[in-house]
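Re: the multi-chain job from yesterday

Posting the exact lines I submitted so nobody has to dig through the queue logs.
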Amino acid sequence: MKLVYFAWVRERIGKAEEEVDLPADIVTVADLAGWLTSRGEEYAHAFENPKVVRAALDRVHAKPEASLAGVREVAFFPPMTGG
Amino acid sequence: MGFAPTIRIQQQPFDTAAETALLTAGRTDIGAVVAFTGICRGSETEGDISALVLEHYPGMAEEEIARHVVEATERWPLLGITVIHRHGRILPGEDIVLVVTASAHRQAAFAAAEFLMDYLKTRAPFWKQVERPDGSAWVEARADDDAAAARWRES
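And the result, structure tokens for all chains:
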């Protein structure tokens, strides 16, 4: 699965994207965020307030409880500030 | 949707007058055009701004804007839509975003332009970093922008 990061989530993790092999018990967006948090300080920093970090599955906004089944690209980013 | 909307994410500046003229050229059914331009300010309450740097999610940005363009055409009888959003480094006084809506009558054009801007602010995957003389910081999302977008879901 491809993970992509934007804005301060990208800065805190220290990379814009990566490929990961997920354990079988990682089923939802929230599971994935929790699993990433356990991978190191930079991830823990990015997800220190998990409610603030937003996600998109295959380029569509997704809630924490959304299923990762069949998803190819997961994005994590802060609340959007465009316009 | 009876027309092809124009949606562009680009680094270079845009020409509001030219984009508006393109939307109405050769047509006699359009009675109202609203063009909203968002511009980079040179200062805010926190102090002077040297520049804004806009990051975006390529692919999703276009797709997310397109989803809201479709929704706008389902809500209002529109005859044309152009949305252009810049990314990269933008200096005070430069344009950031353009929304142009065309309709037979003004109400639909005004409402659709406001709807699209409210969603661009809160749902389109763009992030602003503000450069100040003493350093740079990510712009925080504003609660009143969320409230502005949420009111379209009421009633």
